[in-house]
Amino acid sequence: MTTLITNIATLVTNDPTLGDGSPLGLIKDAALVLEGERVIWAGPAAQAPAADESMDAAGRAVIPGFVDSHSHLVFAGDRTAEFNARMSGQAYAAGGIRTTVAATRAASDEALSANVARYLREALRQGTTTFETKSGYGLTVEDEARALRIAAEHTDEVTYLGAHIVSPDYADDPAAYVELVTGEMLEACAPYARWVDVFCEKGAFDGDQARAILTAGKAKGLHPRVHANQLTYGPGVQLAVELDAASADHCTHLTDADVDALANGSTVATLLPGAEFSTRAEWPDARRLLDAGVTVALSTDCNPGSSFTSSVPFCIALAVRDMGMTPDEAVWSATAGGAAALRRTDVGRLTPGARADLTFLDAPSHVHLAYRPGVPLVTEVWRAGVRVV
């Protein structure tokens, strides 16, 4: 069964060869043809082939489903009090994670799974069709493994983050915790995960510890990602590029050498503006990265402490307003950029062979995502050729 979707005001394909020659591959007055869960044709509506059934997009814009490549959804409780205190003048530090660790350990499997499902439904309503999520709020062998098992019930993009912070149980012996993370905990967690991550930051793990953790993960078949250079300058970005990490995430404090390393490597710089918004921190300089030729992704960093948002459109608006991105660049980074950060070629684009993940906007153009911040423009979402919103 084939489906023709026509009367699309603006189609974002993320393939310059299909459209106007821009990175977004824009086609005006466009159409798509789907077969099963795949796109089989994209182009001008006037040239659309026949299909078994048709649908009128009614002059709306259609973009690829957002690819949210960084989130922390396996948790319990919230950190309202911490947020309130921070908005009243207290500084943000990595230690607040311990509050969520305690609540997560105390929660049942059913409660944790329901929480993940809740926030994924919330994200889906806002156009996100592919999402990564991490462990990191258990910090024991049993709790990290169950977090990943629960995450794997909801997505294929699962990340082992036993190295979120040093477990409170090992506060006096960080070396022993690194040994646990690279040994028994890794053995228990690797079967559920695709990725290994580490928070390489003052107050979390230093460069040597991060290298040991990521190297051990690679030896078990997990590919690296790195929480890098969020709170201050540090070795995270350089380490990510050296180990061919798929992404270095945050990238707020960068030296020229960090930018050069990203530009000359295959590691994506994933920017997380929700974190800067929620902590009143310095914004990442997306313009500097883009002008250097770095591949940039945008993601929500949805977590209960520093970025409690599941809205990619909100992050797009922040990136345009405060990080020097154009609307085109922000939309590309939230779709194709996110796919690159997950090393996926089947999502983040609407070209023949891609998965038919479509987000319809109540607007004639993708630019409205930044032009009309806070307005719920997503009216319809399809995943793998099936309407889900």
By DSSP (H or I, 4+ residues per run), the number of helices equals 14
List low-pLDDT spans.
none
Can you count the beta strands?
17
Q: Major beta sheet, specifics?
A: 9 strands, parallel
Proportion of residues in extended strands: 15-25%
**Overall helicity:** 25-40%
Spatial shape: globular
Oligomer: single chain
Gyration radius from CA atoms, angstroms: 21 Å
Coarse structural class:
alpha/beta
Q: Ends: how far apart?
A: 21 Å
Report mean pLDDT, rounded to a whole number.
96
What report would you give on this structure?
A hairpin with a 2-residue loop joins strand 16 (378-383) and strand 17 (386-387). The protein has 14 helices and 17 strands. The model has no long low-confidence stretch (mean pLDDT 96). By secondary structure, it is an alpha/beta fold. The longest helix is centred in the N-terminal third of the chain and has 17 residues, at 109-125. The strands form three sheets. Strands 6, 7, 8, 9, 10, 11, 12, 13 and 14 form a nine-stranded parallel beta sheet that branches. It is globular, with a radius of gyration of 21 Å.
